[in-house]
Amino acid sequence: MTTDETQLRQELERTWAVPRGIIGWFSIVDHRTIGRRYLVTAFVFFGIAGLLAAAMRVQLAWPDSRFMGPDRYNQVFTVHGTAMMFLFAVPVMEGMGVYLVPLMIGTRNIAFPRLNTFSYFVYLFGGITLFAALATNTGPDVGWFSYVPLAGPDYSPGKRADFWAQLITFTEVAALAVAVELVATIFKTRAPGMSLNRIPLFVWSMLVMSFMIIFAMPAVVTSSSFLLLDRLVGTHFYNPAEGGDTLLWQHLFWFFGHPEVYIIFVPALGMVSAIITAFTSRPIFGYTAMVLALVATGFIGFGLWVHHMFATGLPQLGLTYFTAASMIISIPSGVQIFCWIASLWRGRPRFETPLLFALGFIAIFVLGGLSGVTLASVPFDLQVHDTYYVVAHFHYVLLGGAVFPLIGGIYFWFPKITGRMMDDRIGRWSFWTLFIGFNVTFFPMHFLGLMGMPRRVYTYPATMGWGMLNLISSIGAIALVAGGVLLVYNVVRSAAWGVEAGDNPWGADSLEWGTSSPPPVYNFLHIPVVEGRHALWARSEDAPIVTGIRSDTREVLITDVMDAEPSNKADYPNPTIWPFVTAVVTSAFFVGSIFTPWALPVSLPPLTVALVGWFWPKRSDLHTGEERPPALSEARA
Amino acid sequence: MSSRSRTVDVSELPTFAFGHQGLIWWGTVGYMVIEASMFLISFVVYFYLRLKVDQWPPSLPDPDPTFGTINLVVLLGSLAPNYLAKAAAERLDLPKVRMWMAVMVVVGLLPLAIRFFEYFALGCRWDSNAYGSIVWVLLSLHTMHLATDAADTVVLGALMFTDKVEGKRFVDVSENALYWNFIVFSWIPVYLVIYFGPRWM
Q: What phi and psi, each to the nearest 5 degrees, are found at residue A238?
């Protein structure tokens, strides 16, 4: 490294330094730190929600079990599902995006970094609120989709359903913020040369996910706010006695709820593509088809919601349409699966742990997809509606379709995040334990469903003949827990004592592997210029770099949407405590509004103060006199 | 600085940019899309609930459109100073920006005052029936946006009178004006649905 480069490195380290101390901890706006926090927090919530699932399997292992009563069981399955969907699946994918996207596209931080910090704390406080409610016997008990009239004021007195409704607000405020950040980051801050047709597939998947969040989540924010209003101030949205309608809830919820499945699943597809590319050491087969399939999935995902409502007596024509749409979505998924198979076929795959998880995903997801196609058929759906067949199906697509690739992704990117390799031998053990455990747990549920066992029952009499399959399922759950423990053990052990990874231990192709592991606070010493779709593989001996970006302020390069041509520069904000303060006030408002509508006027003054504090510049942040205005204004001035 | 032979030098590029060239525009538009989706979903709920009953509004008087129409006129009129504030910002003309932002503070608060009377003109309470619930929500959703942008204009306007004005603050003024346009134009469908939904359906 030249003297100039050493100087540059020191200056960048000073400029992008992460603040220290307690206040510093709450002020950090660095995407790697916030991304790591998202991941750790999401996995902690995943662990708790997983233990709740284990408790359910203990309860159901034998007929007439008295391990839990029905009231406790209702809270446990509701909080399990709610936490898995809202506190784990979406945030963990967003956490991967927050950490990886700026690195993969060659920039120094995520767009709107303070909003990013705010979103994390709102998410954290939301999660704490839900589990605190469960711990105090106020956990929601109406299922993760909280159907009215059961969740309405007449059938759910008390505050349990309100905690559910406000958890939605917490998590959606956070998720929407991250979605906007990711769209802006991906569209406007890519390294020069990374035109749209050179974006890594994982980044494409994050883009599709973000757009889906932006269009789907307003529906659930609106509907859960209506639910809260019905319960708190006596509106009648879902009250048929006063002109409201209960099916309205189902329409609004599933208009969000079905895209939600793809919001979770699409990033996982991106991870699988990244892993398969790296472990076959070849360009992925059918890049363009893969991108189109991702985008198509994003669109079609919005046209399926009624297949959750086949049992509600909707008009025949509507049912037919939604059956067709539900079958159509298997086409883009099929395209991707064939592209992966072709990539594996052509390459010489190295069967290390991340690839094992990617392959495990393909096997499990195809099974989940097949049961999905059967469920798209209305007569069959009516037969197995609300039975364990459906429970089996969505665990195959969600655990198999999202969690397996995610764990593969953790094994894959762990060296980048921590600088150390995860142990491959423990990794293989954990894969096989999880894979076998998963199938033993969930495969028998298909038969339980066909035998008529309804979901969400806290126990069953021995005479039903469901005992043996339930016992097998519960034994599988032990293996699942063991696999999870092995994973956690491997993470902890490797973080402390793992083999040092180096910059690019897998010989992978995308930009994040072109910087040190873990990356420095400024990500790249020089912003790279991308010369091909596989940035590192295409890099020439004398690869160009970007110069002229200031290193004494948090300046980043802004490029245009299509071709990533440099267009201007932006000054990213410094760390500050105000996003945290805003998150505290916002959270206090959300929790307060469970109990009283006065929470709104009471929280407005502190919220205003916090937002003004966030926005108002400090003198040390100013760069007046050092700026270059855009050409148009120069001409007019 | 670098020993490399090939570099892309960006030192001459502007340090801030208006419209879709800049980053703030993307954030603003992102949130506009989210909020437009919320409006759209609320409209869907309005018409869905309409289909469930024979009479609309169900056993309640039609809302009185007087104050809503006054607000429509005021909001449409506000487009002019808003445009001038935006144009001044894009010329980096600080005195004009100050002037038009001051005007926009007044123009931003006026519809809020009129809005107060609109609630009484609805002729129903939020808990009268489902119709009352949805019109209150529609009106309040728009009020929330009005209040947010009015507050934003006050704070940003105040900042423009300090010595902390940087280039990117002109971008903020421009995007704040864009957001105000969104609020004005979103009032048109909200106004039509609330006041003429009952008359035309």
A: -110, 20
Distance, in Å, from the CA atom of A429 to the CA atom of A98, rounded to the nearest integer, reads 29
The tally of CA atoms less than 13 A away on the side-chain side of residue A513 is 21
Residues 145-184 (A) with a CB less than 8 A from some CB of B: 176, 179-181, 183-184
Best A558, A563, A636 member to test B by mutation, with max B CBs in 10 Å, is: A558
Dihedral angle sign, alpha carbons of residues A579, A581, A582, A587: positive
pLDDT in tens, A172-209: 999 999 999 999 999 999 999 999 999 999 999 999 99
Please tell me if residue B94 touches chain A, with a CB cutoff of 8 Å.
no
If one counts every other C-beta atom within 10 angstroms of the C-beta of residue A468, the result is: 9
| Burial profile B114-127: b = 16 or more Cβ within 10 angstroms, e = fewer | bbeebeeebebebb
Rounded-to-integer distance, Cα A361 and Cα A353, Å: 12
Identity of the residue numbered A285:
F
The answer to whether A188 contacts B155, with C-beta atoms less than 8 Å apart, is: no
End-to-end CA distance of chain A: 44
Enumerate the residues of chain A whose CB falls inside 8 A of the CB of residue B21. 558, 560, 567-568, 630
A555-559 and B7-9: which strand pairing? unpaired
Subunit contact A222:B42, Cβ cutoff 8 A:
yes
In this structure, chain B runs to a length of 201
Query: DSSP of A35-90, one letter per residue?
Result: HHHHHHHHHHHHHHHHHHHHHHHHHHSSTT--SS-HHHHHHHHHHHHHIIIIIIIH
Nearest chain A residue to B25 by CA distance is A184
Q: Predicted ipTM?
A: 0.95
B31 to chain A: which residues are within 8 Å by CB? 180
Does the beta carbon of B21 lie under 8 angstroms from any beta carbon of chain A? Answer: yes
Question: Degrees (nearest 5) of the Cα angle A273, A278, A279?
Answer: 100
Q: What are the tokens at A573? A: 């904000």
Which pTM was predicted? 0.96
Question: Does A557 reach chain B within 8 Å, measured CB to CB?
Answer: yes
Task: From A126, B109, A624, A134, select the one nearest B101 (Cα to Cα).
Answer: B109
Q: Is the minimum CB–CB distance between A317 and chain B shorter than 8 Å? A: no
Find residue B9's DSSP bridge partners. Answer: A547
CA A473 to chain centre: 27
Q: Which run of H or of E encompasses A481?
A: helix A467-497
Would you state the structure tokens that stand for residue A177, as one six-digit string?
Answer: 């913020």
What tokens appear for B160 in the block?
Answer: 């423009």
Give yes or no for residue A471 having a pLDDT over 60: yes
Are the beta carbons of A378 and A417 closer than 8 angstroms? no
Residues from chain B contacting residue A630 (CB–CB below 8 Å):
14, 16-18, 21
Read off the pLDDT of residues A5-53 as tens digits, 9 standing for 90 and up: 899 999 999 999 999 999 999 999 999 999 999 999 999 999 999 999 9
Query: Which chain B residues are closer than 8 Å to A180 by Cβ?
Result: 26-27, 30-31, 34
Distance to chain B for A278, nearest Cα, Å: 28
pLDDT value for A635: 37
Instruction: Identify which of A566, A568, A622 has the shortest CB distance to residue B166.
Output: A622
In this complex, how many residue pairs, one in chain A and one in chain B, have their CB atoms less than 8 Å apart?
223
